[in-house]
Amino acid sequence: MLQRAAIGISPPLGPRGRPHTTQPWRSKRNAQRRPGRPLPQSPPERRWTQASRLASRPVLDPKVFKAYDVRGIYPAEIDEEGAYAIGRAFVEQFEPKRIAVGHDMRVSSPGLTEAVTDGAADAGADVLQLGLIGTEMLYFAVGDLGLDGGVAVTASHNPKEYTGMKIVRRGALPVGGESGLLDIRDRAVEIKGRSETGKRGRVEPYDIWPAYVDRVLSFVDVQAIKPLRVVIDAANGMAGAMLPRVLDRLPIDAIRFFFEPDGSFPNHPPNPLLPENREFIVAKTLEEGADLGAAFDGDADRCFFVDDTGEFVPGDFVTALLAASLLEKEPGAKIIYDLRASWAVPETIVRAGGVPLINRVGHAFIKQRMRDEGAAFGGEVSGHYYFRDFSQADSGVVPFL
Fold first, then answer.
1. How far is CA 126 from the centre of its chain?
2. 3-class SS of residue 20
3. Is 156 a catalytic residue?
4. 231 and 334, same domain (yes or no)
5. Is there a single domain that holds both residue 62 and residue 97?
6. For residue range 320-333, what is the model confidence (pLDDT) as tens digits?
7. Domain identity same for 269 and 172
8. Same domain, yes or no, for 54 and 194?
9. Is residue 153 part of a domain?
10. CB 192: neighbour CB atoms within 10 A?
11. CB pairs under 8 A, 24+ apart, for 180-187?
């Protein structure tokens, strides 16, 4: 079945003491956005009064800096002042001229995003505010717009108490423990307060949605897609905001569950890699007599599948199927896969006329190897799938298509 699918009150104050606008991460002077469809709105976030901010000390526990991202409990391990320090430290470390910043649907995300934006702008960078986005949309924006980097405020598939950040450099290359994240940590923990270091950068909203939707749809021939019946579990994550614009242009019967973005995750945790979180999609796929079931994680950069019998399809098998589909269009292309994959992956790649290249686990290493080799596609057992023509970044929506 999967092969068929593959084919085809005075106002509260913001982090710098300015009143929040209707969308609190935007300043009044930047309220005008570029033409395009309205940006999705975020759920209400925790509001901080000036008195509470002054009474509290910045929170930034060094342990929130992980191997590939920033991740910790809000506000016990990281708060808005800590987020400001990270935004400023990022710009001081890498000296980008223009960056993008966006966020997921978690309750804490809008306020933290405003703080990151202020930190980056105070350090001199121009910032494009993308608003409510999936993480892959940040990657796409950095690559497509030729930006020097970006920050997605998200805790991905982690429980609701968490917040985090995924930081990238030019070309959407991730900033991890071996590529500058620990330097950002060391700078950030030394930032005791807020002060502009020179000329403040410009901050303006930018609507990346139309270009993003066009790009992901460019990976498939919409006219050739069969009228499949597909059950989708968005887990109250970002897929619920991202998919409708895509589904509206597909000839499929999409049965939608938990499409309302809600950072409290009222139905189940947004991590389909865990069997207990797949019970719903398995049951509904069978109940609806669907051809396919698809479940997304919190920031929608990973998509997991069950077939028409309710059987979970492992990530290495999805890698093999995606590789075979891509090689129909680009024979001889190089394909990256991680060392945890079964023999079926390289065998399928060779049979389809491609060149399989095994690689160490981790998105930073996969992305770098893709650039070094000029590979067209890369896949990991964990459900991350990378596409050269998508800023060489991972996407959850493209594999779904």
1. 21
2. coil
3. yes
4. no
5. yes
6. 999 999 999 999 99
7. no
8. yes
9. yes
10. 10
11. 180/93, 180/94, 181/65, 181/69, 181/70, 182/65, 183/93, 184/65, 184/86, 184/89, 184/90, 184/93, 185/62, 185/65, 185/89, 187/85, 187/88, 187/89, 187/92, 187/93
Please tell me whether residues 190 and 222 are part of one structural domain: no
Q: What are phi and psi of 153, to 5 degrees?
A: -85, 105
Q: Which of 27, 108, 109, 156 is catalytic?
A: 156
pLDDT at 65 over 60: yes
Q: Which residue has the higher pLDDT, 208 or 364?
A: 208
User: For 184, which DSSP code?
Assistant: H
Examine residue 123 and state whether it is found in any structural domain, yes or no.
Answer: yes
d(CA 268, CA 278): 9
| pLDDT score recorded for residue 56 | 54
Q: Which two tokens stand for residue 219?
A: 């990976």
Range of the domain at 352: 315-380
Alpha carbon distance 12, 15 (integer Å)? 10
Q: Same structural domain for residues 303 and 189?
A: no
Distances 229 to 250, 280, 288, 311 between C-alpha atoms, Å: 11, 17, 8, 16
Q: Is residue 20 part of a domain?
A: no
Could you tell me the CATH number of the domain that includes residue 70?
Answer: 3.40.120.10
Whether residue 62 sits in one domain with residue 181: yes
Q: Which of 288, 313, 338 is the last residue of a domain?
A: 313
Which residues in 297-381 belong to E strands, given as ranges? 303-306, 312-313, 334-338, 355-359, 377-379
Is residue 79 within 8 A of residue 52, CB to CB? The reply is no
Of residues 127, 71, 81, the one with CA closest to residue 104: 71
Q: How far apart are CA 77 and CA 93, in angstroms?
A: 22
Q: What is the pLDDT of residues 381-390, one digit of tens each?
A: 999 999 999 9
Handedness of CA 386, 96, 299, 338 (dihedral sign): positive
- Percent of the chain with pLDDT strictly greater than 90: 82
Q: Do residues 372 and 334 touch, judged by C-beta distance below 8 A? A: no
Whether 309 is covered by a domain: the verdict is yes
61 and 183 in a single domain? The answer is: yes
pTM for the full model? 0.86
